Amino acid sequence: MQIINGGVTAPAGFKTAGVHANIKGKGGTKKDVALLVASAPCTAAGVYTLSEVKAAPVLLSQELTASGRLQAVVMNSGNANACTGQQGLQDAKTMTEVAGEALGLDPKLVGVASTGVIGVNLPMDRVIAGIKAAAAVVMAGPVAEVAATADDTATAAATTFGPDAAAEAIMTTDTFPKQVALRFDLNGTPITIGAMAKGSGMIHPNMGTMLGFVTTDAAIAPDALLAALRAATDLSYNMITVDGDTSTNDQVILLANGVAGNEPITLGTPAYETFTAALTEAMTILAKAIARDGEGATKLIEVQVKGAASEAAARAIAKTIVGSSLVKAAAFGADANWGRIIAAAGRAGVPINQFTVTITMGEILVLQDSTPVPFDEELALAYLKGDSILFTVDLKMGEAAATAWGCDLTYDYVKINGSYRT
Amino acid sequence: MQIINGGVTAPAGFKTAGVHANIKGKGGTKKDVALLVASAPCTAAGVYTLSEVKAAPVLLSQELTASGRLQAVVMNSGNANACTGQQGLQDAKTMTEVAGEALGLDPKLVGVASTGVIGVNLPMDRVIAGIKAAAAVVMAGPVAEVAATADDTATAAATTFGPDAAAEAIMTTDTFPKQVALRFDLNGTPITIGAMAKGSGMIHPNMGTMLGFVTTDAAIAPDALLAALRAATDLSYNMITVDGDTSTNDQVILLANGVAGNEPITLGTPAYETFTAALTEAMTILAKAIARDGEGATKLIEVQVKGAASEAAARAIAKTIVGSSLVKAAAFGADANWGRIIAAAGRAGVPINQFTVTITMGEILVLQDSTPVPFDEELALAYLKGDSILFTVDLKMGEAAATAWGCDLTYDYVKINGSYRT
To answer: Is the interface score ipTM higher than 0.85?
Structure first.
């Protein structure tokens, strides 16, 4: 398996555009409307937030993806179109209709995703202008600058073709765009997977995820595509947390256009396993990027739980530890406080043997069979000051393992979220 | 029902002492060992942390309280005696033995509770000296100053008789002691309930609580006492959260000595309901004090959920909202971001109708039937800057309601927990 350039446009037959449409505040230049377009209808699968409060674009995409066919996705940041009532549902539909018309596609083949502030109706004149501008870029091929204008704004917007522009256009409090592509061999046919994602706050596992978009040139049966997406999501996006809060807008959409020409992948075959492993790899890279880019974060925290009685138990414990505010604050302070880790493990809702727990921080053993081990505090401090830290928890109850990712809790998290809306 | 002075010594027949035994760091003067002693054996009940990792004093108290009889409780702060192996279990037992001997009681009548840092064995010479000093105070009655000395410390410690001293001696990161007493009439007999508690961080509902001790002069059957304690805990300590982290050391012990002379209270009677209501009131006052004194907190947040389909649903939603890091950070920043509130409600794990939610902040309506209501931002800012704020969420699905309490997430929470151990 080989990591390559290109994000979601690495597989043949996919194009993207990202434009500035003034949704993220007037006068700025940040991109906030994007399109992902395939040259032909794709087999499509999606996973969505499990929140009881689902944003309008989630409800619509969920309905559209149920057909198993999509050719494009229209996206915006700066406004989540969540808790926006009937108008919000209509606005989401209008986004797909405008994109469909501009791209010459049936709107039923256009998925939709939004992210940003909750409870404010979309500025549809600007959104529509942005979609049209992005569609013009996609239809024309690579273009350096296109103006996206709306009646109430005079700002000409920088517009860019390609995966970077789209990955930037879905960012909110993200500090860097998140995309990856990788290529692997499937029975002699090279297959490519491209993926992009956004997410920084309101990130919590066991749900869909934040926004994620994946493309592949593999030929694959619809049920196999959905199964692969669900399996990969469980091991990647569902194993990260930033703050325990789950978004109303989480969705991941996977488009497969089949242009690689491989024998179509079906469930229960070695090819399915190979494809799912590659998909999991691509999505895990982005999941870790989201965790590292958690709001205010200074470091990535990885928690590996092993020796668990079941995989479900290992997952629950890993996610509880990495989501603990006390563990996260201790990580920020580079305090080797393993008591926070074992206390979090104890409240994960699954049985553990409190007398057989072994904990290491990087290579530093701090607890052996639940007995404190004297360790070099200077060494621990130096390790915990790094930008990537690993906690390993061995429960010695069985053979199951799981890995979860998160970030530290910092002054900047409080700052960002003390004034997110204002 | 009338609030009176005296904390746990307000009911007749209870004495307390709190001493400085140098457990909280040498050279300081903070009290860290306390005794609560009744003049005769009491009917006793306890509730304990549901964490899979239980501290030694929790395991021992749980065993002792199963008999339904206790006459004293020995407590320390500065060290949780958690994750301390066989030595920890022996140390907890020694604490009860030393207290029993000094007080002339069977050690099986002495409960034990600890709070503080995890994973460090107790400095038993200092603990023993502290218990002996506290016992001397209790045996002698009110005394102004008694020296608590241990072999390895020369610091004379200020010692105080009475409820303030004990409430202070169980504090960790608490900024004020927490106690209350109230008196009510039961069929012509005045009954008194006294209570004290500690807790500031590692506070999360649905478990026992942090340390809590309750006394009463009521005569009450053991099964009724335990039922009343469980019911009151569910509505008070189990409805607060500071950070979603559950302690290894949570316990609440309730002692009833019967000296009020009332006809013994039994289950299923109006007297039981009256007693439970009073107990709930006392424990709720302390629960709110713990929430207000959450680590780094600048304000108390109360969340009232009504119109829920069931009480369990109302409780889950109220606790999820008040525990949301995003809601807590927005409260700190006085940002009227109701989107955070409805998003948290959506992930509480119970069904809600996302189109019928009404939210008010104090008296300010911000969301009506899931439609945003324009409101005066200046007024909202002024309200949210207060030291007590109320969010009301009406789901319009049924008749059930619940209230939960918490606090804001601040820079100081991060600061306190970034360097708790070091």
So the answer is: no
